[in-house]
């Protein structure tokens, strides 16, 4: 009992955040096109717009390989390997967040640390994305380390972590390195000559590492990161949706504690500079969320400590209301995200019902572009006799002559094929009277077709479209 109590004191927050992240993995295991490069080795056949580094995927795959080997020996479906990979990535990211959290406790106290964890837990995006193999997420782990070193006053280690993230994973982390480096110089926390030397050595090491590792799989000398909405969108849409209750609280935290301002300014400049770029996505600025949560946690702690005084008690009630609203928004967002991978559920359903009695005959499945980018990766594939094609540009009238057994398509009607069933996906949110006041709008997104000339397929019982 004492051991359990000590364990929970040391790792209770990690268990809480890890459990939520793991829940998201098992409930929404499938991946989208943005994650395709890091999740499957098909870069020569489908290279994408620009090359990406293999270093993050290689590191995660090494750590996940024992679990994948056991899964293979037990002949479990390939999707279990995807579970393992995503859970390992989540452990890595949450370990770096733990390092940052420990520094928060040392600098601001255990109560601020507790509110930091609460705010992170009731937000959706950070814990949902921390297991997704995106370049931004690999960089996010290094940014968490940089935040921790910054709070620890290991300024050169903080800069070197950001340099590593910039050169290897996301060159746009430079937008965070610049204001942070400038602040450290102006506050005389670092000296310019020593910073240039330290960061220069790290940069040379990183460039050499990425060229050495990535040139082999790409089969040419390569440094991947060298090839590469409205201005206010991050401040008026992305941050409010991801921070939820922490958004107004982070502003209050800056006003209540002067120490927070020193940490927030470089991160705000990072988001501001990113706003200059025309293409905007929440995942691009996910590295800023822990620092905003810190500021919000400082405000929440101050409100809690003064909850019995005058105006503060109204702020405390408002804060509790914001927490409840945040939790509700997180639940709704998760439900929408669960329905956002229709082709992953479609191919799983096809594998469960689409086996043919003649096992010697090849079962060939064609996956169109829409299906390929909305939930399907090679982890979703089965072994023989199943075969898969992602050939693009086939006219609809040509499928009849291509001898595919099944088609996964965004089209409801294809000549020569019978629509066997469809999978619905998220299309929007509808307000309604009663409880719950919000319902998800789901429409058919992926249609599974079977060869109309295959008697065994036609005789089978299917849900139909």
Describe the protein in words.
- This protein is of the alpha/beta class.
- It has 2 domains: 20-338, no CATH class; 342-459, D-Maltodextrin-Binding Protein, domain 2, CATH 3.40.190.
- 58% of the residues lie in helices and 9% in strands.
- It is built from 18 helices and 5 strands.
- It has helices at 2-27, 36-39, 55-73, 79-108, 110-121, 125-129, 135-151, 155-168, 174-186, 192-218, 233-243, 246-256, 258-274, 289-305, 312-338, 342-353, 369-372, 455-459; strands at 363-367, 386-389, 406-409, 417-431, 438-451.
- It has a 5-stranded mixed beta sheet with strand order 2-1-3-5-4.
- A hairpin with a 6-residue loop joins β4 and β5 (438-451).
- It is globular and about 75 Å long.
- The model has no long low-confidence stretch (mean pLDDT 88).
- It is an enzyme of class 2 (transferase).
- One of its GO terms (biological process) is protein N-linked glycosylation.
- The chain crosses the membrane at residues 15-33, 54-74, 80-100, 112-128, 134-150, 162-186, 192-213, 233-254, 260-277, 284-304, 316-338.
- One of its GO terms (cellular component) is endoplasmic reticulum membrane.
Features:
single chain, alpha/beta, D-Maltodextrin-Binding Protein, domain 2, EC 2.4.1.-, transmembrane helix, transferase, Mannosyltransferase
Task: Summarize the amount of helix as a percent range.
Answer: 55-70%
Would you report the number of β strands?
5
**What's the number of domains?**
2
Largest sheet: 5 strands, mixed
Q: Strand arrangement, largest sheet?
A: 2-1-3-5-4
Given helix and strand content, the structural type is: alpha/beta
Q: Name the helix and strand elements from N-terminus to C-terminus, one letter apiece.
A: HHHHHHHHHHHHHHHHEHEEEEH
Helical segment count: 18
Q: Segments where pLDDT lies below 50 for 5+ residues?
A: none
Q: Which shape, going by the Cα principal axes?
A: globular
State mean pLDDT (0 to 100 scale): 88
Relative strand content: 5-15%
Roughly how many Å is the radius of gyration?
A: 25 Å
Question: Separation of termini?
Answer: 55 Å
GO biological process, one term: protein N-linked glycosylation
GO molecular function: dol-P-Man:Man(7)GlcNAc(2)-PP-Dol alpha-1,6-mannosyltransferase activity
Pfam family, one: Glyco_transf_22
Family: Belongs to the glycosyltransferase 22 family.
